[in-house]
Amino acid sequence: MTSPSKSSAILTVRLFAGLVDLLSTTELKLALPKECTVHELDHRLRQEFPALAKAVFRIAVDQSYGQAQQVISASSEVALLPPVSGG
Amino acid sequence: MAESTTASCRFRQGPVSPEWALGQVQGEDAGCVQLFLGTVRKGGVEGEVLSLHYQAYDGMAEAEFQRIAAEVLERFDVLRIAMEHSLGEVATGGCSIVVAIAAKHRKQVFAAGETFMNEVKARLPLWKEERYQDGSTWIGQGS
Lengths: 87, 143
Prior knowledge:
The complex is a heterodimer of chains A (87) and B (143). With 87 residues, chain A is of the alpha+beta class. Chain A is built from two helices and seven strands. Chain A has helices at 18-23, 38-48, and strands at 8-15, 27-33, 35-37, 58-61, 64-65, 71-73, 78-81. Chain B has a single domain (6-127), classed as Aldehyde Oxidoreductase, domain 3 (Alpha-Beta Complex). In chain B, strand 4 (80-91) and strand 5 form a beta hairpin. Classes of the chains: A alpha+beta (87), B alpha+beta (143). Chain A binds chain B through residues 14, 16-18, 21, 56, 60, 63-65, 79, 81-87, and chain B through 38, 54-57, 59-60, 63-64, 85, 96-97, 117, 120-129, 138-143.
């Protein structure tokens, strides 16, 4: 986990299904600039957590699938969704 | 008895059954109701399945259902959609999802049902783990 700086905030990222097994936790904490995009978060997560480097997941923001240029703040509800398999 | 265009869903621990979903969509304005049941099959990815274990992203699962249902209701001119989905453990042979769709005519309901299930499989934030005698495996998209 990166240490927070004056210009950063701590983001909580929820995990599900196989990603919980992969990282042995149900959520991650990550220090980010006050705002970042979904694309930037994806990049940071893969850098900070080597187990995620080649993992397949989509990022959800506030209970919707996130778009690459969508802005995330520390107050956003963020989750990593591995390939779904309902039904 | 329902009488307006609606989309309803609920998630339940363990196996589900058709009564609730049927009750949500039946009405005198409907000329047909399509009922789909998804059941847990024995043959799995890595061996004989004893049960499936379901996990959902609570909150988003309901929200994504509403988005999918709204798209299907608009595109196919059906009257009502209801879905009940399992959480937790469902043994082989048990029912894990029920979808009921009411429409005025059968052509609409057949097309709507296939599209709805395809979208559920691709988008609903819900996961299943196959459990075997000697281990388990999370299943990816399209299963």
